[in-house]
Amino acid sequence: MKEDCSPSSHVPISDSKFILKSELLSLLKTYNCYHEGRSFQLRHREEEGTLIIEGLLNIAWGLRRPIRLQMQDDRERVHLPSATWVPERLSYPQKDASPQDSKVPTEEPSTQPANNGEVSRDGSGPLQEEEEEVPQLMRTKSDASCIIQRRCKSRAPGEAQKMRRHRFSINGHFYNHKTSVFTPAYGSVTNVRVNSTMTTQQVLTLLLNKFRVEDGPSEFALYTVHESGEQTKLKDCEYPLISRILHGPCEKIVKIFLMEADLSEEVPHDVAQYIKFEMPVLDSFVEKLKEEEEREIIKLTMKFQALRLTMQQRLEQLVEAK
C-alpha cells in the first residue's frame, strides 16, 4: 500500500492512498473463493487501464433513531386502469353496462399489502424484481407493528379510500403512512449493487434512495466495525467496496454498518481491546494503574530531592573555596 502514487498499476483506496493492482486482484480472488456459489461474488473488468470491480455490498443497519420514509415513490406510474374497475370493488365486464358505469376511477384498485405477487399501484401487474435481494427493512418491536397486527381485513368504503391516499411503496413493498417512521432492527443486513469507483457518499445516496429514506446522506455515515469492537469511519473520499475487499470476506470479523453521523464515533484498537471486559476486571486494571502511577511519583520525587541536595552541596563548596 502506497501513498501519492497513481500509475495504471495501482488502484486508489482513497484520494491519497493506492494499492498494487496485482495485490488487490489476489485479495479479490480470495474474496470470490469464500463466496463461491453465491450471489456475492464480485466481477472485475478494465476500462482504459482502470480496474473496475462491481457486485453486491452488504451493509448492516446500526441506527439508534427512527428513520422517515418518503410519502411518494418515484416508481409509481400514472396509468388509467381498464373500464372493468369500479370504485371500492372489482367487477367483470357486463354487456348492458350503462355509460355511468364505464367511468374510469383514478384511485388505486386494491387495499391489500403487496406481499405475495406484488401488484403495482396502477394495477398493471407484478412489479419487476431487481437483481439483488428484495429490500426489506426489518423493524424493531414498536407501536407501528401493533397497528399492523390489529388491522382488520374489511374496511368501510370511506376508510379504504383514505388508506389509498396514504399508501406508498418501497420497491414494491407497500407501507401505511402511520408506519412510515420506524427504526430498522439493529444488525439486520441489506445490500446494494455498487462498483469500486463509487465513494462513500455515493454508496450512502444509493442505499437511501433504494429504501426511499427521506433523510439526506449527510446525516449518515458508514463504519467498519470489527469483532473486537474497533470502529472506524469510512471517509467521504474512500471506496466502500475496496474497503470490504481489504478487510476480507468474512462478516463475522468485520461488518460495514450504516450509522448516524452525529451519534457515532470511532473506537481505536487500544480502547476496543478493553470493551468486552467486565467492570470488576476493568476496576482491577484501574487500581493497578494507580499503584504504578504512585510508584512513579515516588521515584521522581526521590530523584528530584537527591539532585537538589547535590546542588546545595556544590554551592556550599564554591562558597568555602572563595
Notable features of this structure?
alpha+beta, six-stranded mixed beta sheet
Report on this structure.
With 322 residues, this protein is an alpha+beta fold. Helix content is 30%, strand content 20%. It is built from 7 helices and 15 strands. The strands form 5 sheets. Strands 4, 5, 12, 13, 14 and 15 form a 6-stranded mixed sheet that branches. The longest helix is centred in the C-terminal third of the chain and has 43 residues. The radius of gyration is 31 Å and the shape is elongated. About 24% of the residues have low confidence.
Question: Quick summary of this structure?
Answer:
This protein has helices spanning 21-34, 143-150, 157-165, 200-210, 240-247, 269-272, 279-321; strands at 2-3, 10-12, 17-20, 43-47, 50-61, 67-68, 85-86, 89-90, 167-170, 173-176, 181-182, 189-195, 220-226, 231-233, 254-260. With 322 residues, it is of the alpha+beta class. Strands 4, 5, 12, 13, 14 and 15 form a six-stranded mixed beta sheet that branches. A three-stranded antiparallel beta sheet has the order 1-3-2. A two-stranded antiparallel sheet has the order 6-11.
The gyration radius over C-alpha positions equals 31 Å
The number of helices is: 7
Tell me what portion of residues adopts beta-strand conformation.
Answer: 15-25%
Number-wise, the strands total: 15
Task: State the distance separating the first and last CA atoms.
Answer: 68 Å
The main pleated sheet reads as: 6 strands, mixed
* Overall morphology: elongated
Query: Which blocks of ≥5 consecutive residues have pLDDT under 50?
Result: 76-132, 139-152, 168-174
Listing every helix as H and every strand as E from the N terminus to the C terminus, the arrangement reads: EEEHEEEEEHHEEEEHEEHEHH
Q: Helical residue percent?
A: 25-40%
Which structural class do you get from the secondary structure elements?
alpha+beta
Q: Give the integer mean of the pLDDT values.
A: 75
